[in-house]
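Posted in: Structural Biology > Protein-Ligand Complexes

Title: Requesting predicted complex, iron/sulfur cluster in pocket

I'd be grateful if someone could produce the 3D structure tokens for the following input. Sequence and ligand are given below.
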Amino acid sequence: MSGATASAGCATTPVLRERGQHEVFCGLTGIVWLHRKIQDAFFLVVGSRTCAHLLQSAAGVMIFAEPRFATAIIEERDLAGLADCNAELDRVATRLLERRPDIRLLFLVGSCPSEVIKLDLARAAQRLSQRFSPAVRVLNYSGSGIETTFTQGEDACLTALVPEMPAEPGTARSLLVVGALAEVVEDQMLRHFAALGVGPVRFLPGRRAAELPAVGPGTRYLLAQPFLGDTARALESRGATRIAAPFPLGAEGTTRWLRAAAEAWGCDESRIRAVTEPGEQRARAALGRHREQLAGRSIFFFPDSQLEIPLARFLAREMDMRPIEVGTPYLHRSHMAEELAMLPEGTRLSEGQHVDRQLDRCRDANPDLTVCGLGLANPLEAEGFATKWSIELVFTPIQGYDQAGDLAGLFARPLVRRTRLEL
Ligand code: SF4
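-- Reply #1 --
Done. Output follows.
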């Protein structure tokens, strides 16, 4: 553990950069959690049957009276030309919006097929926005597997929202929490910020399309998710400034995340402690229940969600696990600076993927637990490795003090299951 020493952790560790075949979901996956978050939005994927299939299987068995995402399939058709394609898209969107007056925000989501790439979805969004203004706002972003992996879909979606955010008048100070969080987590965070005297606090994305937060030179923003590089850049172009902090995972991460905002607001030390200590104690008690299963165990992360580095930091420092390799699809050095400094020295960092080489390294290391995407989990389980699906870490509320125990439990479960199987 590097916590007690003045070590720089992995701040200067060289990163193994790999390019090659990779096994990750595309950015369409983000729709599965974003459609639950923005309650009056609809996501219309302009894509193929594969896209429709991916969404159905990623969404699992969700039963809706009124679904909030769909796929307009434009491949496998005799297209007379782009004009027809645009007309068809307009027809589908118009029919949807006329039938569903509850939709306030429509996202046209781009995908991979060449017919889709040729379509100008930004112009289609403008055209439809004008037609349905002011009742519906129509925006577009790409969830294509060529341009995005898994969580980058959320980054692209939030980036599309930033130009729509109203301007904060003058230099009024506000805190913007950026990244989709479960409502239960947002409510807890709001209580902590209120007790710290930090505010007003707003969230991006908001729960409703009309609740787009204001942004301006007085906006300080805290990232709640580590995969929002483009969103951050867009916010900065509107004058907002990032508060550097680790991510709110585990007792320590949550305290440091809250503390960073509190210090930016000039909150004094005794108040910070009074607010954070009870939560931290609750979290540590909950973590203690899983330590026996996790302490001393080794863990290997394949790149998938960009949550890998903060998760490895949490598991190493609070659960005494041993990260062997931590892979991330993309390493954002400045957003990860606090996290890297806390990661134990000697952890191998990799960015991008060459899946065969990485599988070889994983087999050599023979970790107790491997975190990976669904595509790798089954073959690795068949080889005798215990795996954890990284997608669950995105779908489950894991941020904040009161979710810390659940977060540890997600890693403990595959090991407990394995012990039972071996008995
Ligand atoms: Fe659709 Fe491309 Fe994603 Fe496949 S990778 S589901 S074609 S967007």
